Amino acid sequence: SAEYDSSGWSSTGRPYKQSGINIPQNYISVFARDAEYYMAVVYLGVNKETYAVLKNGADSIYSPTGSIECAAGNGRGIWLVGTDSSDSGAEVNLRLISYSGELLLTVNLENIAHFDDPVYTIRCTADAVYLKSASKIVGIDSTGKKVSEFKLENTNSGLAVGSDGKAYLAYYTDKGTQVNLIDGTVLKPAFTLQEADGRIYGGNAEF
Question: Could you tell me the pTM of the whole model?
Answer without folding.
Answer: 0.81
